Structure of Spore coat protein GerQ:
Amino acid sequence: MIMQPYRPVTYSYGSMTNQMPVGGGMTSQMPVGGSVPPQVTSGSAMTPTGAVVSGAQPAFEQSYIENILRLNLGKVGTFYMTYENNSEWNAKVFKGVLEAAGRDHIIISDPTTGQRTILLMVNLDYATFDQPLVYQYPGVIGAPPVTRN
């Protein structure tokens, strides 16, 4: 079975144009809005005028659950979920290999069958892991760089 890692996508802007007639029926390419917006990487700061503030990107991620989970992709975890107003079951436990984690979801897979399950973060109570976690608290001087196997 082939396991493909989660890879975020970066989109670029500035390729949209409007056709504007010039003189005797000829057309000229003009960017929408009169100017091409700057290319911005995800998370880059911008000024109110729309200029991209360039600066060194931090070598750490902020301490949010999805970022902590992303630092530990490939590890086996147990995820405890609660589902309110459910007549069949109110709480459920899922165990599997952590494949991906986003702002609102977690993707795990069963190592024996390869079946993938998407869990919603809104239902997550807590997660446990049987092995040490990689965790890098933001702003701590001397925190080790993130290494993934």
